[in-house]
Amino acid sequence: MQLTYKRNFCIIAHVDHGKSTLADRLLQITGLISDRDMVNQVLDNMDLEREKGVTIKASAVRMEYTKDGVTYELNLIDTPGHVDFSYEVSRSLVACEGAILVVDATQGIEAQTLANLYLAIESDLVIIPVLNKIDLPSSHADEVATDIGNLLGVDPDEIIRISAKLGTNVDQVLNAVITRIPPPRGDEHQPLKALIFDSHYDSYKGVVAYVRVFEGTASMQGDFHLMSTNTEVKPIEIGVFAPNMKPIQALYAGDVGYIATGLKTVKECRVGDTMTDQKNPAQTALPGYIHPKPMVFAGIYPVEGRDYDDLKDALSKLQLNDASLTYTPETSQALNFGFRCGFLGLFHMEIIQERLEREYDLDIVLTAPTVEYKVILRGGEEVLIDSPAMLPDESTIEEIQEPWMNLSILTPTEYYGAVMELVKRRQGFFVNQDYPSPNRVQLNFEIPLSELIVDFFDELKSKTRGYASMDYSFKEYRASNLVKLEMLIGGEPVDALASIVHRDAAYHKGQRLVTKLKELIPRQLFDVAIQASSDGRIISRATVKALRKDVLAKCYGGDVTRKRKLLEKQKKGKKRMKMIGNVEIPQEAFMAILKLEDE
């Protein structure tokens, strides 16, 4: 098909504004899926995505649509809307020439709407604004259309108003894609240049690379070369998503599809790499992606030591499917061998944990999440640490710096005070404000990342009855008065329960954590001391009392020395048991640091 009749576009929006529902309707209108086979969220093929109602993975699909007697090839990429998956969005935008910006007529413009819009503008895409959910009684379409018009500098009457659920005016979206979005550029006779924008692992086909062909032709007869890893590839299968994988003979310039490489190792096929022809290679590679910087770190350990290799294999396959996940091996005194994993946020961490447990049937323990700190030593050397256990000796530290974020919160004006109070309590600073519409305010703050990752979003939603939305980005490292808070159980420090906290908050956090752990750690046959230590001294202590057997039950009188003899014998047994006893620490204890309520 000629380039003139091809269109590549994606759908961007805030969470729950109707991206996946709109994608469902587009698939139905173009006849790709029959009404009989239709299920909600067709492109969200993970159970997790359907359960949580969010898109986690970007997914591509090719549709055909006839307008004015001409058949067009439309390549759609559906993107996530949650802030933790913005890297998926940025990768998808590179493969497109245009974007449909979906805004909920009942909610209006939200934080992720703006964040994704700015990403699309930076990628120089044509934006088609669409107003969704106009059928709902609570929709205020005219007001929201005016806000979008002011934001984009377009006439509010030109904004397409649809109901993706009912299918109202969805055909207008397809017509706008054809008329407003330019066809892709490229020449199928030039040397092959195909950008890998995503991938997954298939047991039979090896690594399946999702590609956008910018120049040349990728055919089954070709031998390919991956430019950054210098890997040679003989394709097993080439095809398109319709919406399932459909083999074809070749992909031409402007096409979006997949190439099954047969590669068995993840490292050889990287997202952002350029695929070219071995015999007639391209001179330069396409610009790849800036690798995302993990924001949250946590240890993942197998409950059974023998599952270590299975966990390593599962993480390598997940990393292929989710390029923003990072992991390195680590050991813990309490949990033995595992991995230190980096995530883009807490929700991202939760999704990875669930995928490991469901898709790979692993029984795992996660340690409490932390952020990456910059430690400046007295000699001037800088060290980055993402685990409290890695913190050098306090006598060698000049200062500890923590990451600060730019935080943007969009909220109805009536919750202005509640949001201000929440951010202030979390040690954030107010920067400025803006009014995108008369009854909504965008508040900009600077806040430590460590305060942002722990229950901040949940608290924000509860304070604003679910109306506020947020987006954040890294700003800089700043020096803070931080100390290491250690937990000792039975006199032994448990590295997996250690955390780095502000010096002012160390005493209260240590006290609350000791109280929490006392409830969670089961009683043993001996006394278990739980202590919090900071700055080289114990700041709080509690004792889990021993389970006691009544050894005097069989004494029906007699001399008191007989009773004392039995009690002394029991005391010696307890003392010996304490020396060799092992305290089992449940998974809830490692998450207790998260659940501490702010007083």
Automatic annotation (TrEMBL):
It is an enzyme of class 3 (hydrolase). This is Elongation factor 4. Residues 4-185 form the Tr-type G domain. One of its GO terms (cellular component) is plasma membrane. It comes from Anaerolinea thermophila. GTP binds at D16, H17, G18, K19, S20, T21, N132, K133, I134, D135. It holds the Pfam family LepA_C. Transmembrane segments: none annotated. Its EC number is 3.6.5.n1. PANTHER family: TRANSLATION FACTOR GUF1 HOMOLOG, CHLOROPLASTIC, TRANSLATION FACTOR GUF1-RELATED.
